Amino acid sequence: MAITVPPAPPSSADDRRSHDDYAPWARWYERELGWATEGTAPVRLLTGLRFDVLEVPAAAGRAALRRVGRSGPVALAGARMSLLVAAGSADELPGLLDWLEWGGVTLSLTAIGTDGRITAPMPPGGVPSRPGAAVWLRPPGPRHEGEPELPALVGLGSRGGDAPDLVRLVDAVATECHRVRLMRARTGRSAEGPTAQPLAFS
Q: pLDDT higher for 176 or 154?
């Protein structure tokens, strides 16, 4: 099924846009992906229904993605990266971090689940309206009922040809968050500060 991408809202001198300009984005997420949205300026995606989100420093996220290869959709907004995972994963994260022996370590890792929201990136194929605007690095594909694409916790180890394994993803993300924190402490720079140019992942 081909995905029809709505046009970007028109730019203006003061970068203000009307609610009507963003309405096609909300309709696109609802119709093409079946994702619940809220608001139109900006459009927000509701978490805890079709997916949860792991939010990490962009530098840690890029390094983790290089390690795990396959993942679900990934978005970038400023210096933070959002990795979409199966709904319910946010509730599993504290126990999973304990099991992986990361429970006592301070990590810049946030799980967003039920009743949460993230700013919707511009649908794939569009051009960001401003620097730091939310964009897809690994965009979501069209919905296919019964075909998993989000990392999930369904037992330990590899899931073969199915969705990427949540355990492996969380372990890689925690490792890279810790590495970024150590580098920040060593150099005195913030983990949330400017990072290298975003990479496009396929």
A: 176
